Amino acid sequence: NVVAGSSVTFRIRVKVALPLPDGTTITNQGTLAYDGDGNGSNESLEPTDDPSTPALNDPTVVSVTSAPVIVITKTSSDLNGAPLGPNDILQYRVVIRNDGKANATGVVVSDTLPAYTTWQNALTIDPPSAGGVTGAPPQIVSGMTVAAQQSVTLTYNVQVQPAVVDGTPIVNTVQMRSNEDAAWYSDVLTDTAYAP
Fold first, then answer.
1. Could you tell me the maximum CA-CA distance found in the chain, to the nearest angstrom?
2. Which of 99, 103, 108, 135 could bond to 69 as cystine, CB 3.0-4.6 Å?
3. Stated pTM of the model
4. Nearest-5° angle of CA 52, CA 53, CA 54?
5. CA-based nearest residue to 149, from 73, 66, 65, 64
6. Residue 72: which of 153, 11, 159 has the closest Cα?
């Protein structure tokens, strides 16, 4: 019962689906059933009203703001064992993490082949469900999706050229962008090659 001249507040908590496209509208309206004539039956109905608008008995509408939030990191390992030297295989692992609430779609990954190295045609995308078309430097992946709150790992190899000079820095930069954000996100990694 609601005493005359008083009010009762109901709060309903719902969890918004993930992901949702930016700008998605969520509409909600409740209905109060009450005994308007005192006959013991709740035959009277009153819809809820959004107090933020001048309209009466209108639903409450909220707009979802969502976007990918990208973090990209790159690591390397010498598959022949340290120290890195001529003819060694240098494996790169790039982790693209999406901390946002919207998928990053149409992802393009660019990686310029470091000087003094040779590209090895063995790029993998994990998980495979991220899709994407693999290629060769500089554009090594296109058309990939990094789902909201998920990450994708790229793994690929280069071989240090036999004529590398002792102490040569092997500098590598990886970049990525998506349909939702045209800005390039990058990470730079430097290894040092040693020659006898």
1. 99
2. 99
3. 0.81
4. 130
5. 66
6. 153
